[in-house]
Amino acid sequence: MGGGNGQKAKMAREKNIEKSKANKGSQLEANKKAMNIQCKVCMQTFICTTSEVKCREHAEAKHPKSDVSACFPHLKK
């Protein structure tokens, strides 16, 4: 005879616990790899999902004498 619903639920819980243990860990390494936008003036890095607006805000706030394209050459139009 097969197991009841209680046994199936217990097995599913154990299986999910094993899956979650494998995925645990720090996100820091992945975050470091995603920091691929860099200001050429001060060398500050930004995560790859940073918008053009945030890059412009950084350039205007930190480097008012420099042009935005000097800080972020990829924003040239």
UniProtKB/TrEMBL annotation:
<dbReference type="InterPro" id="IPR039713">
    <property type="entry name" value="At2g23090-like"/>
</dbReference>
<feature type="domain" description="At2g23090-like zinc-binding">
    <location>
        <begin position="38"/>
        <end position="75"/>
    </location>
</feature>
<feature type="compositionally biased region" description="Basic and acidic residues">
    <location>
        <begin position="11"/>
        <end position="21"/>
    </location>
</feature>
<feature type="domain" description="Small EDRK-rich factor-like N-terminal">
    <location>
        <begin position="3"/>
        <end position="36"/>
    </location>
</feature>
<protein>
    <recommendedName>
        <fullName>Small EDRK-rich factor-like N-terminal domain-containing protein</fullName>
    </recommendedName>
</protein>
<dbReference type="InterPro" id="IPR039438">
    <property type="entry name" value="At2g23090-like_Znf"/>
</dbReference>
<dbReference type="Pfam" id="PF04419">
    <property type="entry name" value="SERF-like_N"/>
</dbReference>
<dbReference type="InterPro" id="IPR007513">
    <property type="entry name" value="SERF-like_N"/>
</dbReference>
<dbReference type="InterPro" id="IPR026939">
    <property type="entry name" value="ZNF706/At2g23090_sf"/>
</dbReference>
<feature type="region of interest" description="Disordered">
    <location>
        <begin position="1"/>
        <end position="29"/>
    </location>
</feature>
<dbReference type="Pfam" id="PF12907">
    <property type="entry name" value="zf-met2"/>
</dbReference>
